[in-house]
Amino acid sequence: MSPNDRGVTAEREIVLPALYEQWSVLTEFLAGVSGDAWFTPTALPGWTVHDITAHLIGTESMLAGVAAPHTDIDVHALPHVRNEIGAFNERWVEGLRGRPGTEMVDLFRDVVERRRTALDAMSDEELSATTATPVGPAPYLRFMRIRVFDCWMHELDLRDALGRPGTEDGPRAAVAFEEVLGALGFVVGKRAKAPAGSSVTFELTGPAPRTVHVAVDERASVVEELPAPATTTLRLGRGLFIRLAGGRVRGVDHSDEIEVTGDVRLGKQVVDNLAFTI
């Protein structure tokens, strides 16, 4: 059942526990970072482990009503800042840059506790209310599902940077994966420009394997099954798929890990345009 088919009560019972678990995992992970490890570069341009942590603190602080700290740096001039959301994130990164790692852990722990208390107190009506989100106006609970995805992706960023792998399945990964599924129609139809009448199957291997079909009619969308074999089939590890979708890696650098059958040209277009995050 997709998130759009669930009522708000059922959806909150899935999304909020996943978000709380994600915060707990991140808190424990960050508590194990020390010394120069805080300044380890990550897959995100211009950002270290410390910077990702500042971004996580900043977003939850904004949702808790806390203003970004002042910085004299023109964040729009930074090469990796491409839009206003990026500029907002960078104000927190710059504003917290001088804070020691132990203080960053405390800041994160404190703000997510505040957020958990606030979310637990919200009614279903409040969670259903439309608010501004990174994908446009949407119910507040949808925003929290996006928060699960963002926090989960950044957990992977931190683990990859520091060489501390963890499990990549489970409830919070399942909620995060729904955000990726919601973008696949756009990726295949708009970004990869798959022609009408074509279809793409993703065979994802590894932990929590999954087969996903995208059919292109007037618009591209994820479907339960295809009436005929897919125009192109991509077989790759679920972890690699997630990192491609998040723009963390490039398909050209992992071509030996991606098996393409059927229309190879279309398959390459999809792989090269799989990133959808802003």
UniProtKB/TrEMBL annotation:
Pfam families: MDMPI_C (PF07398), MDMPI_N (PF11716)
Boundaries of every MDMPI C-terminal domain copy: 175-266
InterPro entries: DinB/YfiT-like, Maleyloyr_isom, MDMPI_C-term_domain, MDMPI_metal-binding
UniProt-listed Gene3D superfamilies: dinb family like domain (1.20.120.450)
Domain Mycothiol-dependent maleylpyruvate isomerase metal-binding: 21-159
One Gene Ontology molecular-function label: metal ion binding
Name the UniProt record assigns to this protein: TIGR03083 family protein
